[in-house]
Every structure is written in structure tokens, then in C-alpha cells.
Amino acid sequence: MKLRVEHTTRFTYEEPITEAYTEMRLCPSNGSGQRCEDFKLEIEPTGEVMQYHDRFGNVVHHFDTLQPHDHLVVKASSDVHLSDTFADYRKELSPLDQFDYLTTSTYTAINDQIRSFALSHVVPDDATSTVLGLMHSLHKSLQYERGATHVNTTAPEALTLGRGVCQDFAHIMLAACRAVEIPARYVSGYLFNPNSPNEPGVDDHAASHAWIDAFVNRSAWLSIDPTHDSLQTMNYVRVAVGRDYADVPPTRGVYKGQAKETLSVRVAVSSL
To answer: pLDDT tens digit string along 115-128?
Structure first.
């Protein structure tokens, strides 16, 4: 299957700003079952774009806009070929990499509530069953609700609230897995569902989305989506991985000026 992803981000400022430094994680990754066949990036105002890989292997694009400007538009277009479900793929994970995905991070603090939740679902010597049990339970207990949380909500806060969006489902799952010594990482990307546009996490048949990979049985990544209580399928386009959302925001930057910033985002995913 081949999908086209169009992701437009627009920043508008009340008055001109200068010296904007921006980095983006918008390019789909290449890996097991997924190949990015084409990626185009359009920026207004135009500027020189540099590309590199971060510590987690994600593609990062960076550019500077030094001249005065009152808006910034980033349009990313990708054609992605998908041929596998990613449900269980073999991967060597070094002890150092495991450490990254076992420790708490900005949004995945482990409190007594999360630890108790995680321990209650442990299946001895079976990490896969443990992870799936946690996913099923979280999906039942946490209500999907837009606007209930914000981008800086932590896993303990979302679990206590009992409501949240895909980012919150992912952060709670990460914290729970790590609480029982299962390495887990945050996955950012897109979810395409042409048949259920009103399903949670889906907007106009497509959405920016978040889910997780759990490293099970010391040999394989298990890619799961707790928001939808499912394994990752070919409707998922992977972009970046990290310890939590703080490692993989689609855009991040700073600028010189006091102007108030307004952000709008539009994502469209279509089948080719």
C-alpha cells in the first residue's frame, strides 16, 4: 500500500519577528515494512535547509529565518510505501539503548498509581502478554477526549484525570512498561482510516498520531496503539521515535521578538 501525507504548519505573528531557528521532524522513517519514496519540504519565507539525524536515528531538518517576517509556513509532502504490519520485528537493542527506554523522561514519571497499574498486569516471563494486557486495560479505563489535556500533561496527571488524547495514552503506556522493566519508546506519525473519520484520533480520514514500541522478550519490538487498542498496521506511517513527545515534536524553534504566536496545523493522508 502507498500513502501520501501532506502536513502544513503555519505560524502567524502579531508583528514581525527576526532570527527564527526551527527544526522539524516530519520526514517518514525507513525501516521494517516502511519506505519513504519521496519527501518534499516547502518553506515560506524561503531559507537554506540542513538535514541530519538525531541520537534516535530520526531525520531532522533545520533552517534559519533571519530576516523580519510575520508568518512562517512549512509544507511537508511524503509518499510512503507500506508492506508490513510492524507488529513484531526483530532488533538488537544494546544495553545503553535499553537504558534510554527504561528511565523516566519529561512526561513519563512513574508514581504509585502507575506502578500499581503496571504491576497488576504483569504476566511472569511473558513481556508480550504483559504489554498487551496493559494496553487493553488502559484503553478501557482512559476516555479519549480532545481538550481534556494539553501538550505538557504528564502520564500521572492524565491517568488521574482519566481522560486524554493519543499522546496521553502513549505516555501512560510508556511509564507503565518502564515501571515493570520493559523498554518502551514513543512513536510519532500518522494514522490513516478511510472508513471511520469520526473514530477517536482520526480527523478527516487522517491524523497526526502517537503510539509506542515495547521491546519484548529481549529480541523484538512490539508496536501497539493503546488509543485504539490495536497493533500497528499498514494504516500507520512512522516518523520519529524517542523517550516521549519531548524528543519528537513535529516542529520546534525559537525566535527573537515579543510578538504573540498563533499556530495552525493541517494534515491530510490519502491512498495512492
So the answer is: 999 999 999 999 99
